[in-house]
Amino acid sequence: MIQIFENTQLLTEAAAALFVDTAKKAIAERGKFTVALTGGSSPIALHKLLASAAYRDLIDWQKVFVFWGDERWVPFEDERSNTTMAFETLLNHVPIPKEQIYAMYSETATAEEYAVQYEATIKAVVGEDGAFDLILLGMGDDGHTASLFPHTAVLNEEKKWVDAYYLEPQSMYRITLTAPLINKAKNIAVLTFGEKKTNALYEVLEGARNVQEYPSQLLAPTNGTLVFLTDKVAASRLTTSK
């Protein structure tokens, strides 16, 4: 499913509504809301909106459990840290218990070791089925999502829920949820907007299937919903936007 908005403000409001509604439903049904946040710049406006007075009190943050979809394996003080960005824009501004925030980085383990630990934590907190209530994702202008980059071995992963590997073009380790786990989620929302995403969005949604070239094509929930939230600019090549 794709939802196309006139501008990023309307897109952000829709994403916030989805976040709030999904949280309320999960808490009402099971007493907790499990979410995996996305990194990069895409979610910053969403985070700030959720932390604002108009939205902050709509969610029982005491019952929210926060994970990440992927992370650059850098210290928290590094400006590239998705974790630090999320704290600065959202988590420091809402009353969520710190022990319910599961950073995707450790100072005492290697990336590969921590991937194993992180998977165990997901099983303990989210459940043995691994079904997050909501996974938020972005999409790069190369069609990657999370840290599922084109032509990387992680795209072929079938068993691990979390993986870590060295990404040569960026000269750094990345840790990421894998496609098999992401597709277990009850709700997956991809935030993508702007001119740089136009071609990738077209290829992912309407182009020939080539997951090695456009890894976002791997998104196919087994028993949940997938929605792309995009603006008119990014969607300009899609036949559905005509």
Automatic annotation (TrEMBL):
<feature type="domain" description="Glucosamine/galactosamine-6-phosphate isomerase">
    <location>
        <begin position="8"/>
        <end position="227"/>
    </location>
</feature>
<dbReference type="InterPro" id="IPR039104">
    <property type="entry name" value="6PGL"/>
</dbReference>
<keyword id="KW-0378">Hydrolase</keyword>
<comment type="pathway">
    <text>Carbohydrate degradation; pentose phosphate pathway; D-ribulose 5-phosphate from D-glucose 6-phosphate (oxidative stage): step 2/3.</text>
</comment>
<comment type="function">
    <text>Hydrolysis of 6-phosphogluconolactone to 6-phosphogluconate.</text>
</comment>
<comment type="similarity">
    <text>Belongs to the glucosamine/galactosamine-6-phosphate isomerase family. 6-phosphogluconolactonase subfamily.</text>
</comment>
<dbReference type="Pfam" id="PF01182">
    <property type="entry name" value="Glucosamine_iso"/>
</dbReference>
<dbReference type="InterPro" id="IPR005900">
    <property type="entry name" value="6-phosphogluconolactonase_DevB"/>
</dbReference>
<dbReference type="InterPro" id="IPR006148">
    <property type="entry name" value="Glc/Gal-6P_isomerase"/>
</dbReference>
<dbReference type="InterPro" id="IPR037171">
    <property type="entry name" value="NagB/RpiA_transferase-like"/>
</dbReference>
<dbReference type="GO" id="GO:0017057">
    <property type="term" value="F:6-phosphogluconolactonase activity"/>
</dbReference>
<protein>
    <recommendedName>
        <fullName>6-phosphogluconolactonase</fullName>
        <ecNumber>3.1.1.31</ecNumber>
    </recommendedName>
</protein>
